[in-house]
Amino acid sequence: MDPDPPLHETYKPLFDNTKISSNNRRRLVTVEERDLPSIDLSRLSQNELEKEKCKEEMARAAHEWGFFQVINHGISMELLEKLREEQVRVFKQPFQNKCREDKFLNFSAGSYRWGTPTATSIGQLSWSEAFHIPMTDISSSSMEPFATKVASVAQKLAEILAEKLGHKSTFFQESCLPSTCYLRLNRYPPCPIPLDIYGITPHTDSDFITILRQDQVGGLQLVKDGKWISVKPNPDALIINIGDLFQAWSNDFYTSVEHCVVTHPTKERFSAAYFLCPSNETVIESCSNPSVYTKFSFREYMQKVQDDVQLYGYKVGLPRFLP
Question: Active-site residue numbers?
């Protein structure tokens, strides 16, 4: 049985209604490949001067890039390889089994997602499949050791970034719990169709911090200084990016940057992302004044995102909460 989701068959009307022309070609085909700012977390265990330099570099990257990568993060290569092996095993299940993930894979119903059900054009279609798994579902799986360690890294980074804004806060420990955070396993099948198709369409993340482990196929692209750049894969690093909630909480000091994944014509790509999210009732308000945004709950934010995607086909995000 075929493990691939029926992307082409399901979205065939979108392809049939799209004229193949230079205007339909993906605008991200030829972009510069660059290394992200790299932060060595082992420096946090050195003398106070080196420790502070490390924190300052992290805050600068979060401000200027919205993205950075960390090495010596405490998650062994052996554990990362086991995670990939488990991902391959899960995604190579027959498609029908993945659709019944509660029975076959011990994930809660609704974890498996593929394509873009709301897409009305090729530009809105994501050529990918994923398991979006609450951390509380992972406690009995072989992914649990990775999930525990990556959650700890996320809390550490959030606390450092808050500290560099002058706030030694327990906000993230109190608001972002295993019951509110997620691990997303991604697979991007080969996409041989010569149209403007993304693996994941351009977007910003709706959390505080995302930690990404990507393979060597590459494909992650982001906006820097008004231009799209391609992120050079680094097998030793985890990629960190700032989400919308941290941009709002930091009063626009840290930036949630638009990014996407582009498809590959012959290779499949795997990645795993951890999302540091609060409870729905958590109120997000600026840590300084005057505030750029009106305060809002995470529930209100996500409802606006869902409404906009249904109405327009894309997320509007933080501009919805400008005074």
Answer: 269
